[in-house]
Amino acid sequence: MKKVLTYGTFDLLHEGHINLLRRARELGDYLIVGLSNDQFNKIKNKETYFPFRSRKTILESIKFVDCVIEESNWEQKTLDVQKFDIDVFVMGDDWTGKFDFLKDYCEVVYLPRTEGISTTQIKRDLYKKVHA
Ligand code: C2G
C-alpha cells in the first residue's frame, strides 16, 4: 500500500484544500494528514476560526483523507515519515524546497496551489462585506 503524508491547518476548508487533498491521495492508496494543533498554529502565527477538534472532524469527513494525526511542531515530519512508513510526502508549492530533507526517506512532491482562494482571502472578503 502506497502511503501519502501531508500537513496543514485546513481552517475554513475551501476548494484549494480539497484540490490538494484529492491530488495527494491520487499519488497513493492511503492519505495521512498532519493537522496543525492550536498551539502549533500560534507558532506559525496563524489565527484559526475553528479549533483543532472541529478542523479534525471536518477533515476526517473528507473521502480523500484516510487518517488525521496531530501536528504540534516543525520537527516531527522525519519521525512521522518513518513511523507511518510513508512513500510520498506532499505539500503545496508555496513550500517548494522547504522539506527536501525528507528526500532521504521518501518521495517529496510539491503541487501547484489553487489560485485565487485562501483562508486569509475569505476572511478579508467577509470583513469587507460586513463593513461595506
Ligand atoms: N493550499 C493550496 N491551495 C490554496 C491554499 C492552500 O494548494 N489555495 C495547500 C497548501 O499549499 C498546503 C495545504 O493546502 O499544502 C494546507 O494549507 P494551509 O492550511 O494553509 O497549511 P499551512 O499553513 O501551509 O501549513 O508543516 C507544514 C504546515 O503545517 C503547512
From TrEMBL:
Pfam families to which the protein is assigned, alphabetical: CTP_transf_like (PF01467)
Gene Ontology BP, a term: teichoic acid biosynthetic process
Gene3D superfamilies, sorted: HUPs
GO MF annotation, one: metal ion binding
EC number: 2.7.7.39
GO CC, one annotated term: cytoplasm
Domain of life, source organism: Bacteria
Ranges for domain Cytidyltransferase-like: 5-124
Keywords assigned: Nucleotidyltransferase, Transferase
Database matches in NCBIfam families: cyt_tran_rel, g3p_cytidyltrns
Protein's recorded name: Glycerol-3-phosphate cytidylyltransferase
